[in-house]
Design a protein that fits this description.
By secondary structure, this protein is α/β, with parallel strands linked by helices. The protein is built from 11 helices and 15 strands. A hairpin with a 3-residue loop joins strand 2 and strand 3.
């Protein structure tokens, strides 16, 4: 019960059986002071009702509780500042890397700009936040970035930590070796004489221990460092995403890709906080429109620019085109 004093109430508000009088009486108090008094007075009047001839107990009117107001999506709120902050990599050609002019470019960079254009109608309303692969989950969870797009494969265990949109590009994991390497299959790597370059991600180490446990492992924080380890002979092979491997093999005739894949066909997706449904719904819808909807023509230009072929339209089978 509030300790603050209240103004006296006119005795006319206490007419027997007068609900209007009771309502007037309760209006004499602030809302936070009324409920404790209502509880006490109601108990007294209910107890005294049998001793008051002609008086009939009528409960006081109740005040409906206000429903809590829905909170806006944190990331949508941040968009009101006029830009989005996107986690990207600068070490994974052709998805994100520093070109000869010192500029950050790549397929993922262009995809992030396409998101900004969809939100603000201006692809420059974006802040590219360069980060290592080990920092992806902490940075999106603590709000340092609004979302990330950086060669990130969707796996079920990762979805326990962050949210994913549908994939914006198909992928999978293969091994890259020197062209004159004796390695023909994955099983050939299972010797102590060989070394395999991995990223700082648990899934690559787990895959290596399962498929070639006797080989040595080297761990790197960037894909370019992985590939360079094979180029200079520090590593016998490197685990790479298929689009990345194709990009490197195209410009480096001294390397080749093993025919045997390490995984099934997977997908790279945008990642974000898992508890931000409205933001996820917007980004997922946007990816759907890029890969098979109203934004496909723009997406196709980006895809062909980086990979040399046109992407598969995800709705061709449904539309019959």
């Amino acid at each position: 019960m509030s300790a603050r004093s209240v103004s006296p109430c006119p005795s006319s508000h206490w007419r027997q059986g007068d609900r209007l009088g009771w309502a007037k009486h309760t209006q004499c108090y602030r809302q936070e002071e009324v409920q404790p008094w209502n509880d006490v007075i109601s108990w007294v009047l209910r107890s005294a009702a049998p001793a008051l001839p002609g008086w009939q107990w009528q409960p006081p009117p109740t005040t409906p509780r206000r429903r809590p107001r829905a909170r806006p999506s944190p990331s949508l709120t941040r968009c009101w500042r006029g830009k989005v902050i996107v986690g990207v990599t600068s070490e994974a050609p052709p998805f994100g890397f520093i070109d000869d002019k010192g500029e950050l470019v790549g397929f993922d960079i262009d995809m992030a700009k396409l998101v900004a254009k969809a939100i603000f109608n201006d692809e420059t309303k974006i802040e590219l936040f360069k980060q290592g692969f080990a920092a992806r989950w902490p940075n999106v969870q603590n709000g340092s970035i609004d979302f990330g797009i950086m060669v990130t494969t969707v796996y079920a265990d990762r979805a326990l930590r962050v949210g994913f949109t549908r994939p914006y590009i198909d992928s999978g994991i293969v091994l890259v070796v020197k062209k004159d390497s004796p390695i023909k299959t994955v099983a050939d790597l299972n010797k102590a004489d060989y070394t395999v370059a991995h990223l700082t991600t648990p899934v690559q180490e787990e895959r290596g221990k399962r498929l070639y446990p006797n080989a040595k492992f080297l761990t790197f924080d960037s894909i370019s460092a992985q590939f360079n380890a094979v180029k200079v002979g520090r590593a016998t092979a490197a685990q790479l995403d298929v689009p990345v491997a194709l990009f490197y093999a195209k410009d480096n005739p001294d390397v080749r890709i093993l025919d045997e894949w390490l995984t099934d066909v997977t997908g790279n997706a945008i990642f974000l906080r898992g508890d931000d449904f409205k933001w996820w719904l917007f980004l997922d819808t946007l990816v759907a429109e890029m890969t098979g909807g109203s934004l496909f023509s723009q997406y196709k230009v980006l895809y062909k620019n980086w990979f040399g072929v046109e992407p598969r339209h995800t709705r061709i089978a449904q539309s019959g085109r």
